[in-house]
Amino acid sequence: MIDVTFTVHLFAMVRHPKPPRAPPPRPATTSPRPRTPPRAARPRTTQPAPGRPPWTGRPVSPIRSDTAGFLDAEWLPVIPNTDTAAMLGIAHTMLVNGWHDEDFLRRCCIGFDRFASYLVGEHDGIPKDAAWAARITGISRDAITDLARRLTTQRSLIMVNYAVQRADHGEQPIWMSVVLAAMAGSMGRPGCGWGAGYATMDATGVARGRPFVATVPTVSNPVPDFIPVARIADTLLHPGKTIDYDGRRLTLPELRLIYWCGGNPFHHHQDLHRLTRAWQTPDTVVVREAWWNTTAKFADIVLPVATTLERDDFAAGFSDPHLVAMPKVREPAGESRTDHHIFAALAARFGYEQEFTESRSEIEWVRHLYEQTRAVSGPIPTTSSSCGA
């Protein structure tokens, strides 16, 4: 299994300093929203600080990983699920200081005026400034201001990790990170702008290969039919419809029950209003989730699942020759259970507990799979996870 950290990383790239930008002419306005001050001259960093690599970063995450140590950078612990507030505070600081790229926003973006009105509190009376964000996120006002300055005085890359959206209103940090990258003025520059999941799966272009990793035994599904993931709404709304897919004809089935385990269709599906209507057609929807995301909210039954911090496991990346030991750091919260526990309990209800567990406990399965992996792959470099809350 692969460990996924739910985090947002903000990296300031100093290898390619930005050329100075002249502020565009400001048209006359009758809007009551305060205009940003003229852009002041700002010092620009052209050389890395002594002893630092040629690029610096600020990992922002509730999880303390080894990223900060590797970059010789300051880790900014953020209260879980407050990433959007942190980025709003950064954006407000950029806006009121005139640090944002008005030329790019005017030429390449739509709707920034409405967003700016929200930032300054024109409608709700709450400016989303650094002090406001600090109270919510646990990151200091000075640190938020420093991030805003770094993002705009140096070419920058905003990188969000995979699965940031697996949270309550989880689409917001994704959208906000793109807004922040647009404001920073680094879009379209080499190595800059916005990106997602560059390191999550260790798929960074280093063709070192990965070891064989054993998996639990599986059986063949007696039902050969499948549904293209982008046709979920079509399947629910038009059962029996025939569609073209990959050079063949598929007939969409009638679905009376949905058991969703992993993934978030309300994040990646097109036309969410249509999907919402379609989601009402099955008799029952069961969702297995660790996070209160939109899919879980639309379920009839939610089975809360333990996170990677709440179970014993080991991990391997796509191109990483190492295995990472992942001992749990706490017991599952509330009524949540591990995936193995839930599957074993369901198998028992159907009368197949022995066939599923093979008389092994969860930790015994972890040991068994590790021994199988080692037997096939030989000696494997192994590290212990250093993550801590």
TL;DR?
With 389 residues, this protein is an alpha/beta fold. The protein is 31% helix and 13% strand.
Structure description:
The chain is α/β, with parallel strands linked by helices and 389 residues long. It has two domains: 8-196, 3-Layer(aba) Sandwich (Dimethylsulfoxide Reductase, domain 2), CATH 3.40.228.10; 229-384, Rossmann fold, CATH 3.40.50. Helix content is 31%, strand content 13%. The chain contains 14 helices and twelve strands. The protein has helices spanning 67-71, 83-96, 102-108, 112-119, 130-137, 141-153, 171-184, 232-237, 265-268, 272-278, 294-297, 339-349, 353-357, 362-377; strands at residues 8-12, 56-60, 156-160, 193-196, 242-245, 248-251, 257-261, 284-289, 301-304, 313-315, 323-326, 382-384. The strands form four sheets. A four-stranded mixed sheet has the order 2-1-3-4. The protein has a three-stranded parallel sheet with strand order 7-8-9. Strand 3 (156-160), helix 7 (171-184) and strand 4 form a beta-alpha-beta unit. Helix 2 runs parallel beside helix 7 (171-184). It is globular, with a radius of gyration of 24 Å. Residues 1-54 have low confidence and may be disordered.
